[in-house]
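Bumping with the actual sequence this time:
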Amino acid sequence: MALLVLGPDIQETLKISDTILLGLISFGGVVLVLTSLPFAWLADRYSRTTVLAAATAVWGIFGMAIGFIVNPFQMGIATAGTGIGKAANIPIAPSLIADQYPIGVRTRMFATQTLGRPIGQVVGPIVAGGIVAIAGNKAGDWRWVFWLFGIPASILAVAFLIKREPRRGRNEREAVFGAEVADDAIGDGPVRLSAAMARLKKVRTFYFLVVGIGVLGFALVAVPATFNLMMKDVYGYDALQRGWILSITWSVSVIAIPLGGRYGERLFRKNPPSALKLMGASILLYGLFLTIGLRFESAAILIAFFAIGNAFQGMAFTQMGPTISAVVPYQMRAQAFSMVGVYIFLMGGFFGGLLTGAFSDAFGQRTALTVVVPPAALIGGLMIIYGSRYMKRDISLTVSELMEMQEEQKRMAADPENVPVLQVRNVDASYGTLQVLFDVSFEVKKGECLALLGTNGAGKSTILRSISGLLNPDRGVIRMNGRTITLVDPQYRVALGMMQIPGGEAVFPSMSVAENLELWSELIEDKKKRAERIDATFESFPELRHLIDSKAGSLSGGQQQMLALGKAIMLEPDLLLIDELSLGLAPIVVQRLLGIVEKLKEQGTTMVLVEQSVNVALSVADRAVFMERGQVKFEGPAQELLERDDLLRAVFLSGEGA
């Protein structure tokens, strides 16, 4: 806020144009957005209050540094630093609010958080302008505002540091499970950032919400700075006067935001999409009042219309937090709120600032705002209203995931000794816009070998990729030993004991046999045990010892599969995923490999075997899952599948082996 009020004074000191000034201010927003994503990653893995305290300290240090700048380059560094410090607030603060306060009062608390912005924009400009006036209102007195900035920043950092962090997803768990179950440790793995982003795009309400906010960002970031420039250049107001004016333009919001929050809360309880429509309508009214106000030359009328427009903008954002909290699973809240910042500042804010600055330099501030505000508010508001049609669906999907979690927790509590090694529940998956998996569900018990069968294109390899983390499911849950791993990194799954042997791609062809084994052995923590496990591989496949210096790519298909299975022998995984073990191999080689699979099975290794050959798969499998067109058509004992001629006929007719 101080940058907006004192922007014209900084502009005079540094002797820069409107475009450069707005670009530098917007640059801080870009850095804020880019670093909000890493902060979302940190928030998912470490104490959110500690991360927020450290970031606030950085914000204060670089805020003070602005008082020492002497050129645009230094200003860019300082604003970037404040952006980094402020970035943590975007993903962390809303997720803390959602976990701290019960669902029934959540909208009210988000409205209270939203109220902080206009209060700051009412008080901040007066304080900034007042400090400059007290200092003497000379050319460089704006620096005092930033030098004193470190005091409140330090107080905030200490407050966050001593704040006790609420349990993640506490309120949702209590609402669905009850308080007793909510206190149990779930033990979910950390959500991978890229996986969360891909999953969030499938939440249609969230997608249209953030895109609409992103379009609105063309106006949100550029309007305050351009308005301040207009107050100085067109109307000749000094820093203190501009501070008062900016405070007035946000004063109505202090009243409107609590009213909007309370009204939105009532709408949300009756019909959640109505609350999101209220947000979209408020954004449309924000654009309307700003556009009408710009037509008046009178400063008083212009300020009045801007005050009403800002009030509607404030009302709109009271509904954003509750909407995201309702449609996004609690495990991805931090990432979801960070995406809002990405769309506001990166998609709209930075480019909106440059566009508005260019129009301002060429045609004046009034024309620039007239060009930018109407389309940004119109398109943004309509997209948010359109997204409301998906809200009930997205909420029901989130609730269904919680209900599934409740059922699974009850089952684990009742029979903890028989928790399946692998659970796949209600998984949908797509390649681009083409959906290939539809509500796929099955389980694999400890020590069991499951054959995954089906025609070409049935989705066998796709579900295997989803299990191993190489493909992000659109919806559904994947668990290993009771722990949710749906969106965690593949390396995290490996650390849990999962290993995959992909068909035809299980070795590094440019590396020797020895180098392949040595590389895989790095996953064994006990260094003394590594040589022992490599020797075990050579005992199972003696011919590999004679090929130890040969490139893996020069081996025959059977030898490459032996080397790949050697990885399983060496690493002793809890869950082994094998894709196309016998593809293109001679029967005698296949029998040799099946012997190793049987040995692994006897040792208690849990396996999922994807095979084209029904006879090969069922010769070692305890149970079978048959898939067709992305759906599970059969799940049961392997021998029962042999009696299903209707299913096996499809395999034979497709040309796959028997």
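The tokens above came from a reply further down the thread. Residues 335 and 454 are 37 Å apart (CA to CA).
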